[in-house]
Amino acid sequence: MLRRILPPQGPPRLLALAQLAGAVGDGAFIVCSALFFTRIVGLSPTQVGFGLTLGWGVGSVAGIPLGHLADRRGPRGTAILLAVATAAAIGSFLLVRSPWAFTVAACLYASCQSGLTAARQALLAGLVDRERRTEIRAYLQSTVNGGLALGAALGGVALQLDTREAYLTIFTMDAASFLAAALVLRRLPAVAVPAAPAPGTAPVVAAGPKLAVLRDRPYALVTFLNMIMMLYMPLLSLVLPLWIVGHTAAPHWTVSALLVVNTASVVLFQVRVARGVTGLRTASRFVRRSGVVMLAACAVFALSATGASATGASAWTAVAVLLAGAALQAIGEMTLSAGAWEIGFGLAPSDKQGQYQGFFGSGAAIARMLGPLLLTTLVMGHGTPGWLLLGGLFLAAGAAMGPAVRWAERTRATEPPGPEPVRTTPAGSDATPEAAGPEPLSASGC
After folding, report:
1. How far apart are CA 169 and CA 190, in angstroms?
2. What pLDDT sits at residue 444?
3. Could you write out the three-class secondary structure of the chain?
4. Which residues belong to CATH 1.20.1250.20 in the chain?
5. CA–CA gap between residue 231 and residue 369 (Å, rounded)
6. Model-level pTM?
7. For residue 313, what pLDDT is reported?
8. Ranges in the chain, pLDDT < 50
9. Are 134 and 279 in contact (CB under 8 A)?
10. Looking at the domain that runs over 199-415, which CATH code has it been given?
11. What is the pLDDT of residue 413?
12. Residue 239 has what pLDDT?
């Protein structure tokens, strides 16, 4: 089992362990946070929803300059700093006594999380050979899902106890998990920061502001299409629980069964699926296939409401249909992830991976922010037509990814090639002169 979750020894294994530590804490936090803020702190669901929406909106923007910081000062040092900052942000939730304080803490938390994700992606790009990045990213995703499942189980204990002390223990554990992640990140080798291109030469993306990604229109289109595909995220956590309770005859425990199917599928099969991606062309095909599978999943979920009644036969039929839909959704999620990782890395300039990964990752933050409102309006408000419209969005975005990627490739191909980047060590970066010489380590750590 561990071979399916953890990558080979070396920097990839350390990256996985760092993300595993944070994922365990996040899993417990996700399960317990809503009840802590409403039952213990005394906030209303509306206040919590507003704070989280604004927080992830701010985080989607903050991830770009924080990713740029990783490019300029080194991804390892930036990731360590943001892991510690995330722990502090989680600790600040314990001081919340009012809606405005919660909103400030949520903005800080989301910003640190978005920046940390960008820095870790830049660190992965600097430590792993280009051809192995998608495979190693798949290992990391499997590790994260395993950690989230373990954390959710710990959070379930706190929910059962339902006491202030139990919730505070979970929040403290979550903060400690990011401090542990920072300690693991310190064991990684430093990644030297590439020097700026020599005067008179053109970089991969046309020169402009320091945040060059903001003027890279093809990459913005690719990020937008990926954001639409990422709308699958609120399905299992929000839309399907509401759908199961309000529109099907399935018992309430089906919600947990669907989560188990999704988590187990990603842990067991994400690496195997990702091995099919070998470049930008295959990545585009994977995203297109994901759109088709997501449409099929939405159609199957819509069928689960057929014949809803209190009879045992229809209840078990609904469970079977929902499990089939969850299996399709998991396939679509894994296929999308494999393709999107390759596209996000492959179209980013080597010396700007931090800001590009921050920008690409903003799609997930925006999907978290807008997805609940959009999906509940579509599905809960319109039923089967809403499911089919959502599936149509997935299908259209997946089909458009191929032309968008080809456009991005053409804009990069027309730029005159510059010299190979020289690895240098700016003052204050996390790299050392000795670390600047060797090429990035391979996935095996050799």
Report:
1. 34
2. 33
3. CHHHHCCCCCHHHHHHHHHHHHHHHHHHHHHHHHHHHHHHCCCCHHHHHHHHHHHHHHHHHHHHHHHHHHHHHCHHHHHHHHHHHHHHHHHHHCCCCCHHHHHHHHHHHHHHHHHHHHHHHHHHHHHCCHHHHHHHHHHHHHHHHHHHHHHHHHHHHHHHHCCHHHHHHHHHHHHHHHHHHHHHHCCCCCCCEECCCCCCCCCCCCCCCCCHHHHCHHHHHHHHHHHHHHHHHHHHHHHHHHHHHHHCCCCCCHHHHHHHHHHHHHHHHHHHHHCCCCCHHHHHHHHHHHHHHHHHHHHHHHHCCCCCCCCHHHHHHHHHHHHHHHHHHHHHHHHHHHHHHHHHHHCCCHHHHHHHHHHHHHHHHHHHHHHHHHHHHHHHHHCHHHHHHHHHHHHHHHHHHHHHHHHHHHHHHCCCCCCCCCEECCCCCCCCHHHHCCCCCCCCCC
4. 1-194+418-446, 199-415
5. 10
6. 0.73
7. 55
8. 197-208, 310, 414-446
9. no
10. 1.20.1250.20
11. 58
12. 85
d(CA 235, CA 308): 20
Q: Measuring CA to CA, which residue among 335, 367, 61 is closest to residue 214?
A: 61
CA distance linking residue 317 with residue 324, whole number of Å: 11
Q: Give the per-residue pLDDT at 438.
A: 27
pLDDT at res. 18: 92
**Residue reference for tokens 């990213």:** 137
Supply the pLDDT for residue 179. 96
Exposed, middle or buried, 238 (CB in 10 Å: 0-12/13-18/19+)?
Answer: middle
Per-residue model confidence as pLDDT tens digits over 55-66: 888 988 888 888
Contact 103, 379 (CB under 8 A): no
Question: In the CATH scheme, what is the code of domain 1-194+418-446?
Answer: 1.20.1250.20
pLDDT at 427: 37
pLDDT score, position 3: 59
| Of 34, 266, 32, 334, residue with least CA distance to 169 | 32
Say which residues have a Cβ less than 8 Å from residue 98's Cβ, sequence separation at least 6. Answer: none
Report which of 85, 91, 83 is spatially closest to residue 182, judged by C-alpha positions. 83
